[in-house]
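Appendix C reproduces, verbatim, an entry submitted by the partner laboratory led by Prof. M.T., so that reviewers can inspect both the input and the predicted structure.
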Amino acid sequence: MSLTHWLVVGVLVLLLFGGRGKISDIMGDMAKGIKSFKKGLSEEDEVAEGMSQQRGAQTIEHRADPQVRPTVGSVDGRQS
């Protein structure tokens, strides 16, 4: 077996036999982290919905600019 396998086995042994209630503590902390993550996601969704309702529909206006400057190496061969 490789070093990685022995490290995984060692970590599992420490978790299982390292003390009473260690696994339940770890799982409890993990559950708290997941709950706070989901709460944060739902709060962001509520803020985004509120902002979109406040703004309303927006349009983008396009306009042609008649004074377009020629670029370097333009089609007519002159440089500006």
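The chain has a mean pLDDT of 76. Additional entries are available on request from the coordinating office.
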